[in-house]
Amino acid sequence: MIFLLSRGDVIPRPLRQMMVEGKVKRSLSTALLVVASVVGLTVLPSGSSMAKAAAACGTFSVTNNWVSGFPVWAREAGYQIVSGNFNGDGRGDLAMTGAQNATTIPVAFSNGNGTFGVTNYTVPNFPIWAREAGFQLVAGDFNGDGRSDLSMTGAQNATTIPAVFSNGNGTFGVTNSWVSGFPVWAREAGYQVVAGDFDGDYRSDLAISGAQSATTIPLAISNC
Questions:
Q1: Which residues pair with 108 in a beta bridge?
Q2: Can you give the pTM of this predicted structure?
Q3: How far is CA 112 from each of CA 54, 57, 79, 86, 182, rounded to the nearest angstrom?
Q4: Which phi-psi region, left, alpha or beta, contains residue 23 (left: φ > 0; alpha: ψ -120 to 50)?
Q5: pLDDT digits (tens, 9 = 90+) for 28-75
Q6: Which ranges constitute the DSSP H helices of the chain?
Q7: How far is Cα 103 from Cα 107, in angstroms, rounded to an integer?
Q8: φ and ψ at residue 195, rounded to 5 degrees
């Protein structure tokens, strides 16, 4: 049996709990296929053709389909684009913010076949804050609800970590709480921010590294 995870993914909570309770055993049916809502974890029978194909990774099937709106909006200077599972269906989607005139967060929801459904709803404040020089946009599941959210840090005047929590339909709820230390450290040139579940609680956190004088790795652990 083969478990396929992308870099940085973790075994989702429901499946891990099943493992702890002994409900997932080696005697699982060879037809078993588990698709985790958060990270798209797939369990493949080791003798299946899919497993053999996975072992020969490094090849790609290419699509290039027309998508309404999103590619045109993305041309505007300042937009940062990230991928995440913004509606919790196990497929990667795209979101962007940061353009100078933007008051929305465009999202392209994957249909799983190279096509996308696009939303472009107004979001309070976050797109305006994202215009500030230095902000780095990241996607992660910061509240552990199985849907990817957005956060950013690194702007020169920031003392908060803005975050928007996905409602699963292209709309977002906004927070902007003061955080001790981290936003100030993140201003230093060279720092790069990434999201990951660094404490294993199924909520994404933030980490930064890369500044010239740094000898530490600052973390911002989500308390959501």
A1: 94, 118
A2: 0.77
A3: 18, 19, 24, 14, 37
A4: alpha
A5: 443 444 444 444 555 555 566 665 655 668 899 999 999 999 999 999
A6: 13-20, 49-55, 70-73, 126-129, 182-185
A7: 13
A8: -110, 145
